[in-house]
Amino acid sequence: MMKKLVLTGAAGRLGSYLREPLSKLCEELVSTDIVDDIGTLYQGERYEKADLAQMSEIAPVIAGADMVVHFGAIGDERPFEVLLGPNFIGAYNVWEAAYQHGVRRVVYASSIHAVGMHKKQDFIGIDAPHRPDTFYGLAKCFAEDLASMYWDKRGLEAVCLRILSAAQVNNPRALGSWLSYDDLIQLVTRAIDTPTTGFSVIYGVSNNDRAPVDNHLASYLGYRPKDNAEQFAEQVLAEAPPADPTDAAQMYHGGPFASVPLGESGVASMNIINDKKEV
Amino acid sequence: MMKKLVLTGAAGRLGSYLREPLSKLCEELVSTDIVDDIGTLYQGERYEKADLAQMSEIAPVIAGADMVVHFGAIGDERPFEVLLGPNFIGAYNVWEAAYQHGVRRVVYASSIHAVGMHKKQDFIGIDAPHRPDTFYGLAKCFAEDLASMYWDKRGLEAVCLRILSAAQVNNPRALGSWLSYDDLIQLVTRAIDTPTTGFSVIYGVSNNDRAPVDNHLASYLGYRPKDNAEQFAEQVLAEAPPADPTDAAQMYHGGPFASVPLGESGVASMNIINDKKEV
Amino acid sequence: MMKKLVLTGAAGRLGSYLREPLSKLCEELVSTDIVDDIGTLYQGERYEKADLAQMSEIAPVIAGADMVVHFGAIGDERPFEVLLGPNFIGAYNVWEAAYQHGVRRVVYASSIHAVGMHKKQDFIGIDAPHRPDTFYGLAKCFAEDLASMYWDKRGLEAVCLRILSAAQVNNPRALGSWLSYDDLIQLVTRAIDTPTTGFSVIYGVSNNDRAPVDNHLASYLGYRPKDNAEQFAEQVLAEAPPADPTDAAQMYHGGPFASVPLGESGVASMNIINDKKEV
Amino acid sequence: MMKKLVLTGAAGRLGSYLREPLSKLCEELVSTDIVDDIGTLYQGERYEKADLAQMSEIAPVIAGADMVVHFGAIGDERPFEVLLGPNFIGAYNVWEAAYQHGVRRVVYASSIHAVGMHKKQDFIGIDAPHRPDTFYGLAKCFAEDLASMYWDKRGLEAVCLRILSAAQVNNPRALGSWLSYDDLIQLVTRAIDTPTTGFSVIYGVSNNDRAPVDNHLASYLGYRPKDNAEQFAEQVLAEAPPADPTDAAQMYHGGPFASVPLGESGVASMNIINDKKEV
Amino acid sequence: MMKKLVLTGAAGRLGSYLREPLSKLCEELVSTDIVDDIGTLYQGERYEKADLAQMSEIAPVIAGADMVVHFGAIGDERPFEVLLGPNFIGAYNVWEAAYQHGVRRVVYASSIHAVGMHKKQDFIGIDAPHRPDTFYGLAKCFAEDLASMYWDKRGLEAVCLRILSAAQVNNPRALGSWLSYDDLIQLVTRAIDTPTTGFSVIYGVSNNDRAPVDNHLASYLGYRPKDNAEQFAEQVLAEAPPADPTDAAQMYHGGPFASVPLGESGVASMNIINDKKEV
Amino acid sequence: MMKKLVLTGAAGRLGSYLREPLSKLCEELVSTDIVDDIGTLYQGERYEKADLAQMSEIAPVIAGADMVVHFGAIGDERPFEVLLGPNFIGAYNVWEAAYQHGVRRVVYASSIHAVGMHKKQDFIGIDAPHRPDTFYGLAKCFAEDLASMYWDKRGLEAVCLRILSAAQVNNPRALGSWLSYDDLIQLVTRAIDTPTTGFSVIYGVSNNDRAPVDNHLASYLGYRPKDNAEQFAEQVLAEAPPADPTDAAQMYHGGPFASVPLGESGVASMNIINDKKEV
């Protein structure tokens, strides 16, 4: 059992679902984010406020950890200047601090948006070349390449989880891209308990009939999702407006991020309401 | 819900199984074939007799449709001259009429025989190059290429279903190639309800243990077959004569069509009896 | 040395350049086309008028030949109905007659337009899947698939030459796609003198710096083009109008055929003047 | 039903589990090994002692068989000189005798160690090039290449089962590599009852969540494992010592064989106790 | 002929060789760098001092240009914080300013160090996934991904030149990696005069016998290098110390950058002296 | 300059051409074979008689060498029992002795016959899976796999030269497969002077127009053949008997070895006369 595990972005939508299961995998879970308070803590959990973009704030939080689960970042498309601190420099700070302090592995919330401009008909594996759809996706590309380099040059392991859409299934794209919270938890758990991972990439998607990506090359991680968005298909398809055959939001893996102008929020069109876990 | 859906080949073996489920996906199902009568109609179904090889007959049937499910053709190997009208020109007529009348998508009964001369050991994906085994298969290649072009040049969507063998499981090859009627219906339904498809190809085969083809690249269509021919394996294998290791009918994906002389019926050896659905 | 060689399309633009070199590879060259007369004959050459679309006309011409060099067809985009006879049925007639009369090999003038809707950035090899840009290209796909089948099922060899543009270099695309007449002659000669070919496909393009296709997989045919369109680059690029980065005629292998509406001539925009060889 | 089936290595750990199921697939099962006695025989089973390395001993055992299931060999790493007789020459003797006596097919216990030096992150299919980790693995490479040649040149079919680890699940690697005895039996049965196989290769691994190899290209064999080592994951991972991220035994498919010096036993570190089946 | 062309990094080692040839391709060449003065100007050349890391300085320089040739950056490995401004933010500024001002294409000095951790035995094409060897290489990955996105989302063309080593041939690695100045000039010229490029990647390497990378997929750009480092082979090999078979600087494409610690200069070991072109 | 280089098979047809050039690459060339005498020695050359199949004879010859150029073996198809000693055990002895005595690299005369059952139309790269055509080819597969393992496990480098046909060009196959003596010498020189090679495979073939194999993946070795068998094409093709389109000797890479029965000489049909170099 690990002694210390760090979770960044603990106050975020996905982070809030990871706190409880992660707290059971270690003696001490240090949750961190930029808010003052994340509510009631789980057993073994401690909260430390820190700004990822400031090495002087995040490095002490990471010191002494066995692994870091790095989910902290702005979770939507914004202008480059806005994302530069938390999403780009923040990633550098996490890896550099992890290396300086002898952390063994970083588990990273990457995203389908790192490869979002591939067409859905180009069924993509984990070896698909980067093709970001937004500055948000560009930051994921940056962190994945950084992770690759820290493994190759410094032996710091990394598992990059290219999450598709961990949100409600309220549109046809989500019938393929859904990642349920239970499957998210399984995915993060596998990324932690696999004995050696080197630099690994894996898609975060449930066992949906219509899942448009291929995880075969990451089979050794043992991720076998259980949920299937097809249960929502009949209703979602009945309510969906007719699709334009040439609509980028339909044709590309990135969905609405593929059609949104660079720098503008792509979330609105996904109808994601705040369903952050209540403690 | 679609207003008008057209089914060609409605009197054929496979068409007869599609009439009922298709009638439930639209306000009006127009079934068409070259026979005078297809028996009792389902709710919302209308029958129109038309010869596919005559543009003047088939175009009016297609006019106003949202989609066409094109299963009409001679369903066996015949001399080229015999297939030219219904299987080649018929396909052209369907796509051209569909384009002229603003139809959105054609769902097409292609066939394993478009790629039947690949060896079974060369596990083929949906991107396998054409390698027809008969004039029958050559017509499927023609229609697939036509479909590709109408999408690339004119934005008319197409889903080509390369059906393996939608017939009884009474020989060892069918243990791998069987497509049950339920799975056929699921397959056609997915080809219709997927919001955008562009030009897609997918194999029509059940979830057989011994299925010899790969649909991974078409995962976004969400086809997940449920039936498995392995239930028939013990009896079929016990009754099968010893196989010749170099028999083309065993070694090639096309099965009996791979060994039959061009222009001669390949169905006899498959013991397909007429199990057309009774209404 | 072959006894009898048949050249179809002998009165065409490319055919007129092949008559002399082919006449030297055989005891008797039978040139055929639909015109009444092709002018002065070369030594050993005989002319027979025949309509490819009529089996009764073309079969007697082919009878007794060792090989057929099949260049006869309408050489531009036309409506499907116009191409059906000469380009589709004509190809069937040639292969079927060749098979019936024991011909060993068909050397076929296929075209880049069989794969013209691939993007130029998708550097394509001879194994690129069909993606026709016109009915003209669709006929090439049809003949290639037919050729594949006659080899697999009947042992009739075929070499399909996917010619890019055997015309003057008067536009930027031609800097990559040019096939000089000398290289055309080398290509056809290799297709004839290679001892065994099975079913082969090879691109017909000169040794241009900017050649956009890959013949590596056909290296065994020994085609090594000598000419290079780069000699025309400075002038052509200086005179060319600014390119639209999203123009299909620039982005796709098919060039102007990729942007022309189906059924309409694509040649006009290529400024091909009639430079048929004078005898 | 086959008349005569030969099982080599019948006294070995895996062979002892195959005797009973194989005895049911034929009229006569001839079990052979180098021990004097293999205990109580199953119905239809006969035992013949023979040294694989001696053609004069093994050929008479094989004469008259329909198929040979060849599991006989030294089952661990040893110096080349020690393996030369049983593992190399023994394989040659089996195939040559099989050919001389008209046997139809050899089902062979190959091993992951034929490709053991591929990294686990390089998810390998059945077409992965040889990369042996030991002399033991080198012998498997030799026999696979021999099998390929006997099929290509002499029409003798072969199915090479690259078994991962058919042993207890008592270490993290085995969570991916485990092959249960039930699945082994299914695998051998499929290798026998598939009508035609030519030369086939397939991995012998259960349906483990963490299975690190890919059998898709061998789907036509219909092997669908049922067991899953994940049932042992919690306990195994809890008891495992921390992994070194650069340990060859963790990073390579060969596991302990990848890190053991050539010629030295690799089994000790796998804690394989003798769990040979008792009759 | 272009009206205005911008060259960044004009005072750098490679930039100084590009000024003269670029000045001949346009009416006005605007050279820019952070030095006060770049010496005598060529005909049609104008110099403007600007800091790439400051949008307010670089944007006005770019305004009104047809294309930007972007060679400005720190040309060696440095700590991330040092490269952040010129190499990361500078690239963003160039693309964003180019987009805002309607520039058609950016020609970018990328580097082999974007993929430097691939093994030399893994012959890499232009589609090799990113695998940076340094923060310097990571910045190249960032800019390539940025370029891909600006093309996909905004239609701004880019040609990324992955330069190997444009320096003297004084070590064995350079026998493969050398890019002569003449070939560099040809490469940049092709990147400019090719009519449409979309997003393209190409290796910058001469026609060396030992060149370790593959430009086939970029053949349409028409780059055909003329120089060959083999002329230096005899002397270089005679003077080279014996190689360690496992030395990263020998085994990886990145050469000395593959073995240098992150953040430390990798140039020293390459014996690159300042051979900047004198005007 | 190397101190000691060992050449096995020095009395053989190819070995006799290598003695002189190799003697110039080292202070001492130790030539070895099973004959008593190899005639006049070159400067710096010493001859030692040794039987490869006897470790006690070959090990002392190898002791102290920097590299071994291993060309010793029976150079034709023979029964397995005949090849076992010199071709199989001999290879093991060379690698094991090389390892025991700290030799850095083995340069090995492998052969196209290791992959001879691939069809010529399946243009093969150096990564083509083994598919031997004879026991002779099987021994080459064995040695290549052995070489791979000694590199992976023990750091002993190897370059395996898959020679096609280093013999006179007197048949159509040789127009593609010819390796001139000059190109052979260049190939062996590159295999020696490349600083690090790990485990490498490369085809030994001249720059023939009709060369049927692909060396791109080994470009880093810098082998650029100069000779071209096309100079012999006119005469060879004129004299060749008509080819049977289905003749294995024509269709497969192995040529006559692909059609010869296992264990019988394949050389006779190649008309190889003894053109061993005279000293």
TrEMBL record, chains A, B, C, D, E, F:
<feature type="domain" description="NAD-dependent epimerase/dehydratase">
    <location>
        <begin position="6"/>
        <end position="163"/>
    </location>
</feature>
<dbReference type="InterPro" id="IPR036291">
    <property type="entry name" value="NAD(P)-bd_dom_sf"/>
</dbReference>
<protein>
    <submittedName>
        <fullName>NAD(P)-dependent oxidoreductase</fullName>
    </submittedName>
</protein>
<comment type="similarity">
    <text>Belongs to the NAD(P)-dependent epimerase/dehydratase family.</text>
</comment>
<dbReference type="GO" id="GO:0016491">
    <property type="term" value="F:oxidoreductase activity"/>
</dbReference>
<keyword id="KW-0520">NAD</keyword>
<dbReference type="Pfam" id="PF01370">
    <property type="entry name" value="Epimerase"/>
</dbReference>
<keyword id="KW-0560">Oxidoreductase</keyword>
<dbReference type="InterPro" id="IPR001509">
    <property type="entry name" value="Epimerase_deHydtase"/>
</dbReference>
